[in-house]
Amino acid sequence: MQNIYFTPGPAAIFPTLSKHIQEAFELQIPSISHRSETFRKIYQECYQGLKQLFNLPDNTAVVFASSATEIWERLIWSCVENHSLHLINGAFSKKFYETAQQLQKKPSFYEVEAGKGFDISTIQIEKNIELLALTHNETSTGVSMPVEDIHRLAEQNEQGITALDIVSSAPYAAIDFRKVDTAFFSVQKSFGLPAGLGVWIVNEKCVKKSAILEKKGLLTGTYHRLTQFWKYFEKFETPSTPNVLAIYLLNKVTQDMLKMGIENIRIQTEQKAKKLYDLLENHDYLEAFVKNKAHQSKTVVVANVKNGESTSILKKLKEKNMVVGSGYGEFKNAHLRIANFIANEEVYIDALINELKNN
Ligand SMILES: *Cc1c(COP(=O)(O)O)cnc(C)c1O
Fold first, then answer.
1. Ligand 1 atom closest to Cα of 195?
2. Which residue from 145, 183, 151 is spatially nearest to 164, judged by alpha carbons?
């Protein structure tokens, strides 16, 4: 019997994926040249699909790296001379900050404890901030930033770049890309694809900043620098041989999402999330880890196990072929993390809820 995955990444695969993989092999996609017209058409269609799905403005590129982790690094390296400002409320936003430290920038931060969101009226964006680093959805703890807060902060950051991690909330997050300059995700989470592709949405403001740093002699070399990405994007090519199969599949899944309709996707995501949070409100031994409803993630629902012992619950679910995520880091044994992505269809969410109710 096959497992049903509710893990937040790698996650359940998108329902149409095996059909698309089969077709890709029939079309011999893994053997085509990345300098061929066939590849350029795949890239172009993928870009146009993502442009529609995310409602991207014209001056915005979509380029491919190997992971979101790589994009953290390329982004800071390409767009920050000295100062980035980070909002930290979990393990992933912290790693984003640590990347800036490793690159010997002078990052500053606001931090709140795990499971809490930010009161943005307390956040000051100084004039010297070149990049504001936000994480829409903290996959580690299930805290989400309200989209209106992201937009408000972006408006206060007119001179700097606003960067947003949407790894575990794309395409659910309804981001206004006229306000947010750059965002990124890796495909093994909410897109339900095999890991190994980082998708980077980036506008001209970022590329211009990077070109200035290059002119100053602060950036040299490296094939995945932003100006290089942009140059290749303009002809729908990539600086090096990319994962052509992954880009092909991303395009197919994006087209499927467009057919479902982004509005429908958002409505369904919210309905399923409500069922999960309702379960946690009335449960004997589980409760929502994030208390403030405005900050509860719709795509990664994190349950606190009241007796701090998730192992036996995970084991029982596994016996029913249901694989739920354990807690992240220090919360490994204290939490359950339940993905509520598109591939976690309502029938499966219902089955999981049923199991957790009767257990
Ligand atoms: C998983 C995750 C990342 C890192 O993604 P990789 O594909 O492993 O590089 C970054 N940010 C968030 C919010 C994540 O959930």
1. 7
2. 183
Residues 28 and 129 in one domain: yes
Q: 66 with 87, same domain? A: yes
CATH number of the domain that residue 352 is part of: 3.90.1150.10
Return all residues near 352 (Cβ < 8 A) that are at least 6 apart: 4, 6, 317, 322, 324, 338
The CB of 200 under 6 Å from ligand 1? The reply is no
One domain for residues 214 and 333: no
Q: Which of 259, 287, 304 is the last residue of a domain?
A: 259
Whether 130 and 66 share a structural domain: yes
pLDDT at 221: 78
Which atom belonging to ligand 1 lies closest to the Cα atom of 138?
13
- Joined together, the tokens standing for residue 76 give 């800071």
Instruction: Give the Cα separation of 147 and 41 in Å (integer).
Output: 33
How do residues 139-154 score in pLDDT, each as one tens digit?
Answer: 999 999 999 999 999 9
Q: To test the ligand 1 pocket, which listed residue (89, 167, 169, 300) has its Cβ within 8 A of the most ligand atoms?
A: 167
Q: Does residue 186 line the site of ligand 1, with CB under 6 A?
A: yes
Both tokens of 166, joined, read 């949407």
Nearest residue to 184 via CA among 194, 192, 197: 197
Mean pLDDT, residues 325-343 taken together: 97
pTM over 0.85: yes
Containing structural domain, residue 140: 17-259
Nearest to 162 by CA among 231, 82, 239, 84: 84
Amino acid at 107: P
